[in-house]
Amino acid sequence: MALRKIRTQGDRVLEKVCKPVTEMNGRTLELIDDMLETMYQADGVGLAAPQVGILKRIFVIDVSPEGNQPLVFINPEILESSGEQTGYEGCLSVPGKSGVVTRPNHVKCRYQDRDMKWQEIEGDELLARAILHENDHLNGHLYVSLVEGRLYDNSELEQIEDEEASSKE
Ligand code: ZN
Question: Which domains does the chain have, with CATH numbers?
Answer without folding.
Answer: 12-168 (3.90.45.10)
